[in-house]
Design a protein that fits this description.
single chain; 572 residues; five-stranded parallel sheet; four-stranded antiparallel sheet; 19 strands; globular
């Protein structure tokens, strides 16, 4: 048996004791470290969850930023139902610390700002400005130019006060053009879309000012036919109770910035190929605003003649074309300053000049080897002024006989034609029918149609044994928005006159006779419809061209015009 030294044993026990404490310390340290790891993992999991539930700002270092450096963008975990704005592409080169994108897609952006990542939405045109003072401005959602369709569309809001308004629109620029309106079919629950077409007009490429007016809150003209689909019901609906919208607040396009660009020239269709009103060379470019006579600028006690003296505020509205008294026939010398409509001149599309065509008509008038048919102009002043003013200007006195007949409501046209021994007749009796002469009872479309059709049939009977016998119905001359119209005392608005012209055409189609023809003169008389010096009768420069065209039409002298034909515009 070995005897161990006492001191050695004591020392060994102390060493063992120390090793036990060291082991215990290591175990405790490991436990503490493990606890820290567990706590760290729980914290990271909690932080990650909090990040998704409550997005925290992510600082992005500025790189050529155009935005303030203290702007932050919030990280978005998903693209669904994010009320704060549109999601931001994290790979975008949009510099700096951009803000959430809350602006609408078509909002104007500063020129130094870029958005490089665009979603696959089709481009939304910026649209034309809406005049906030318009009577229907709150109804208008947007006004958009559709270059591909050649139209300008007015989008109305659902629940609009005037869901089906009657509009008139005009382009002014290198040429003048009146827009042709149609209502587009819309999805249920959306507002009306009305599109004014210019694709059938003869227009050069360039910038054009757009002006659109609301005439009536509820359209009752030709545009209703497509929506109603019942021509009889449309004709029978009267319009005596219809008053135009306030003329001082009827423009729905903004006065500034309502400009479009027509990228390529348009040849026109039908009669619109034959002539147009173009801007005179060398004149400054400026818009042509509609001339009208506010009711406050006319004296109802003196047949709505202009107030005398005329208030200064009225003059820019009523005297647009005649700031110094005006011209009935434009004979300008080089250097003369012109305003309004005189800034435009008529341009024919002919193989010969206008003077050569007039000379050809003069030769026909005096050529005894080719006796002319006796042409009778039936109507009141609109026919009479062609006879006693325009024919003398053209040196064509004797080309027509004048037959006075005031209105479509009066009987006796056929007997007058027989007494005058007329061969060919053009009838213009659409002015009195919707005027103040009816004492508040304008002739409805149905009555106009039946009365005029009966007149034409009676005249045709008088001429049935005449080998030269023919009857012509031209489009109706337009009237500006004169004081009587704006006081709801007259109904000779474009809406009504277009309706009467449509019915003239319908009568010709219904009679289906080679001896009854329709003459479309809108390409001459419509674009300058607001230029009548006396508010009723055509400006002489307009009537002058109307007389040339109608005379050439009746005498079959139109071969000088565009080869695509002009007597059958509907076939073009």
């Amino acid at each position: 048996m070995m005897n161990l030294p006492t001191q050695s044993w004591g020392q060994n026990c102390e060493g063992v004791h120390n090793r036990k404490w060291l082991l215990a310390f290591v175990v405790i340290a490991c436990i503490i470290q493990l606890g820290n790891l567990i706590l760290s993992a729980q914290y990271q999991e909690s932080s990650s969850k909090a990040l998704f539930e409550h997005p925290q700002p992510i600082e992005v270092p500025p790189v050529n930023s155009a935005k303030p450096t203290n702007t932050k963008i919030t990280s978005q975990p998903s693209f669904s139902a994010i009320p704060q704005g549109l999601p931001v592409d994290p790979s975008s080169t949009f510099s700096g610390q951009p803000q959430p994108i809350d602006e609408p897609i078509n909002a104007a952006k500063p020129s130094n700002t870029k958005i490089t990542s665009q979603p696959s939405f089709s481009a939304i045109p910026p649209g034309l400005p809406v005049d906030p003072s318009s009577t229907i401005s709150s109804d208008v959602s947007k006004i958009v130019h559709d270059q591909d369709e050649g139209s300008i569309c007015v989008h109305l809001k659902a629940g609009a006060r005037c869901p089906h308004p009657a509009l008139i629109g005009r382009l002014s620029g290198p040429a003048l053009a009146i827009l042709d309106w149609k209502e587009r079919h819309n999805e249920v629950g959306t507002g009306t879309v009305l599109c004014g077409d210019y694709s059938n007009k003869w227009l050069d490429a360039g910038d054009y000012f757009v002006e659109i007016l609301v005439l009536y809150c509820e359209d009752f003209g030709v545009g209703v036919l497509e929506r109603v689909g019942n021509e009889t019901a449309w004709k029978e609906k009267g319009f005596a109770s219809k008053c135009v919208e306030d003329a001082l607040n009827n423009r729905i396009t903004g006065k500034e910035g309502s400009k479009i660009t027509i990228p390529a020239s348009i040849d026109g269709k039908g009669n619109y190929r034959l002539g147009r009103w173009v801007r005179r060379a060398g004149l400054p470019v400026r818009p042509l605003y509609t001339r009208f006579q506010p009711k406050e600028c006319a004296n109802p006690k003196k047949a709505f003649r202009p107030l005398d003296p005329l208030p200064e505020w009225c003059k820019p509205l009523t005297n647009r074309d005649q700031p110094d008294g005006g011209h009935h026939l434009w004979n300008f010398k080089e250097g003369d300053e012109v305003f309004g409509l005189p800034e435009y001149e008529f341009q024919w599309r002919m193989e010969i000049s206008e003077d050569e065509l007039i000379e050809r008509l003069r030769k026909r008038l005096h050529d005894k080897s080719m006796p002319l048919p006796k042409i009778c102009a039936v109507g009141d002043s609109h026919s009479r002024h062609m006879w006693d003013r325009s024919l003398p200007q053209l040196n064509l006195q004797g080309m027509f006989e004048y037959v006075l007949h005031y209105s479509v409501t009066r009987e006796g046209i056929a007997s007058k034609i027989a007494n005058k021994r007329c061969d060919q007749v053009f009838i213009q009796v659409g002015q009195w029918a919707p005027s103040w002469y009816t004492k508040g009872d304008p002739v409805s479309f149905a009555n106009y149609y039946s009365l005029l059709k009966e007149h034409v049939q009676n005249v045709s009977k008088v001429l049935e044994n005449n080998p030269k016998g023919k009857v012509y119905l031209p489009t109706i001359d337009q009237t500006p928005l004169l004081g009587r119209i704006n006081a709801c005392n007259d109904w000779r608005t474009p809406t009504v006159m277009d309706g009467y012209s449509f019915l003239n055409k319908q009568i010709v189609q219904a009679l289906n006779s080679s001896r009854v023809e329709f003459i479309d003169i809108n390409f001459i008389v419509y674009p300058p419809y607001d230029g009548h010096p006396d508010w009723i009768h055509l400006l002489e420069d307009v009537r002058y061209r109307k007389t040339i065209y109608m005379t050439a039409f009746i005498l079959d002298e139109l071969e000088a015009l565009d080869a695509q034909g002009s007597k059958n515009p509907d076939t073009q």
